[in-house]
Every structure is written in structure tokens, then in C-alpha cells.
Amino acid sequence: MALSDESCRSLVPRYLYSSPSSSQRLFNLDMPFAKIDQIQNQGMVPPSKYSSPPAPKAAGRRFMIPAPSEKIEMFSPAYYAACGAGGSLSCGLTHTGITPLDLVKCNMQIDPAKYKSTASGFGILLKEQGVKGLFRGWVPTLLGYSVQGACKMGFYEFFKKYYSDIAGPEYAAKYKTLIYLAGSASAEVIADVALCPMEAVKVRVQTQPGFARGLADGLPKFVKAEGVLGLYKGLVPLWGRQIPYTMMKFASFENIVEMLYKHAIPTPKEECSKSLQLGVSFAGGYVAGVLCALVSHPADNLVSFLNNAKGATVGDAVKKMGLWGLCTRGLPLRIVMIGTLTGAQWGIYDSFKVFVGLPTTGGAALPAATKP
Questions:
Q1: How far, in Å, CA of 207 to CA of 308, rounded?
Q2: Which backbone phi and psi does 50 adopt, to 5 degrees?
Q3: Looking only at Cα atoms, what is the longest distance across the chain?
Q4: Burial class (CB in 10 A: 0-12, 13-18, 19+), 61
Q5: Which CATH topology does 77-355 take?
Q6: How confident is the model at residue 369, as a pLDDT?
Q7: Are the C-beta atoms of 362 and 257 separated by less than 8 Å?
Q8: Cα distances (angstroms) measured from residue 263 to each of 259, 277, 285
Q9: What are the structural domain ranges in the chain?
Q10: Burial of 130 (0-12, 13-18, 19+ CB in 10 A)
């Protein structure tokens, strides 16, 4: 019984053939291999155009079969998983890389009498704890921000699409900044639940010398002292710091990148090289990071204060630091730290997206609403 072309094709593993349109096929599976060899020898069709692979006639004969170009389907579960993986890399690596800056910043917030400036803070830590001490708390930082980054980026892409579908194409375009704000806020609520326990241990390890060497001994000691719920004591202040930070981070980044492609770069985004697009991502991320630092700094001081002092309240923090201190203590260092951090995060995130075959973030229309 003769098999149809499609039936034969279904018996061949997909990676063994390319898939040109029917009008482009010069021969099919029923064509004898001798005829295929004749066409090849006459130079009519290079081997890379075969719709079906010829069997090698002798050992050592080489032939090449192009694999189909696979791409991740936009807004599919695999797409959101890829965005989560990129977010985990971007946030985990960057936060871990700036552990020394974060360590000095936290100590300046907790003990400004001792750590009067960035330079003196580094000098004191080097003198008392050595170079190794500058990376104290890197393990909870890496784990906490890797999980947080995965939730933040993955859920942001999900909620951005979800809210765009609810609004419809017209309102999604008209109120795109509101969609950026709502999507990033929704994602950060989830991400901070994952981050909070590691953040609590990190701050305690970094600001109380002798408390613990790292996560392995710090987490059990923290739980023994304050219970499991104590790990979430700073969740509300963490939301207060991270939600405005993330809303500013995503909304400003999306709008800055759009303005760069519209006014500073004469070429449409789709025609720009990938290296230029990644440069735009870093630049937009750096500016967005400076704005993030200004918005979220008071809450950052609160988080450091509450996680350092057992039984402390927000009122205690305000009374001891004052409103001006909450807004300004450690701010210059945090502006440099967060600007660099955010720029690097967007650069790494979009580099990962390009690596897996996805477009970079920003500079294009919002995702189209789902059509029936």
C-alpha cells in the first residue's frame, strides 16, 4: 500500500528535515535517491534544500540536514518560563555582585555614628573583618534575589499581557503606563513573599557582627530567636520599598526606551542591531534605577532598621532616624548602587531573551489583546 507524502513525513523525526512550502519543493519523499544524487551532481540544488534526507551511499560521505528553526511562542508558558529564568539570572547575579556596597549601605543606615561615609565605611569593614568580610551575606542575597527576580520578571510579562487583554487594544495603547504600573505592582507583591525570609537573614548577618557567618547558621538562629513568622516581620516595609521601586523601574524603563527609539535613534527598533538594542536597554535601565532609588529609599531605611533590631516598630525607626534621615541617610551610595544595578539587570535580562530567540523589552507596542 502506497503511503502519502504527509504519512511518510510523519514517520521521519522532525529534526531530520526542513519545512519549505510545497511550491518550493523540487522533489518529495517518493523520488528515488539516484535521482536526488543526479540533481545534486548537476548543481541544481544544494544539499541544504532537501525536503528529505538521502541515505549516504558510502562510509565517509558527508551531508548536511538543516534543523528547523525553533522559536519560543510569545505569551506561551515556555515564554513566561524563559522570562523567569532571565529574571533570576539578572537579579541574582547583580545583587550578589554589589554585596560590598550593600553591606556598607546597611551599616551606614543602622549605625551612622560609626559608619559616617562610604569611604570610611569600607575602611572600617576592611580593618575589622578583612576583604572576606565585604562579602558577608552573599549566599542569602544570591538565593533571595534569584527567586525574587524570577517571580518579578515572569509575572510582570504575564500581568502586562493579562491587563492588556482586559483593556483591549485601544485602551491598552492609550493607558499603557497604567498597565506597566499595575503589572509590575502585581508581580512585585508575589516576588517579595519569596524574597522576605532571605532579606531578613541577610540584613541580620550583615549588620550584627558575630551573629552568624552566613545563611547556613544564620537562618536557624534567626528562626530560634524570633520564630518562622519573624522571617516575615519586614514584609510590609519590604512591600513599601519594593513595590514603588518596581513600579518606577518598569514604567520608567518602558517609557524611556520608547522615547530613545522615537527621538534619539533614527532607525526603527526592528531594524536595529541586537547590540544596539541591548545598549538601549542598559541606558534606559540606568536612568530608571536612579529614579527607583529616590522613590524607594525611605522604605529601604525602614527595612534595614526593623530587621536589625528585635521588636522594633516603624514608629521607633521614625523617632530615632527622623523623616529627613529616613529619606537621605545612605542615599548617594544607593543612587550609584541602584542605577548601576538596574542598568545591569535590564542588560542581562534582555541579553538572555535575545539568546533564547525573544525580542528585547520595550520600544514596541503592547502585546495585542487576545482575539476570539
A1: 7
A2: -65, 140
A3: 90
A4: exposed
A5: Mitochondrial carrier fold (1.50.40)
A6: 53
A7: yes
A8: 6, 15, 17
A9: 16-69, 77-355
A10: exposed
Q: What is the pLDDT of residue 185?
A: 97
**pTM across the whole model:** 0.72
Whole-angstrom distance, CA of residue 364 vs CA of residue 261: 9
Which of 294, 286, 285 is CA-nearest to residue 332?
A: 294
| 14 CB burial (10 A radius; 0-12, 13-18, 19+) | exposed
C-alpha cell at 92: 541574582
Q: Give me the amino acid identity at 354.
A: V
276 touches 261 (CB < 8 A): no
Residue 53 has pLDDT above 60, yes or no: no
Rounded Cα gap, residues 226 and 218, in angstroms: 12
pLDDT band at 295 (very low <50, low <70, confident <90, very high): confident
Per-residue confidence band for 49, with pLDDT thresholds at 50, 70 and 90 = very low
Cell numbers for 371, please give them. 482575539
State yes or no: pLDDT of 64 exceeds 70: no
Is residue 109 within 8 Å of residue 329, measured between CB atoms?
Answer: yes
- Asked if residue 40 has pLDDT above 90, the reply is no
Cell of 198: 532571605
CA-CA distance, 17 to 20, in Å (whole number)? 10
Would the pLDDT of 309 be above 60? yes
> CA 300 to CA 108: how far, in whole Å?
12
Which residue type occupies 94?
A: T
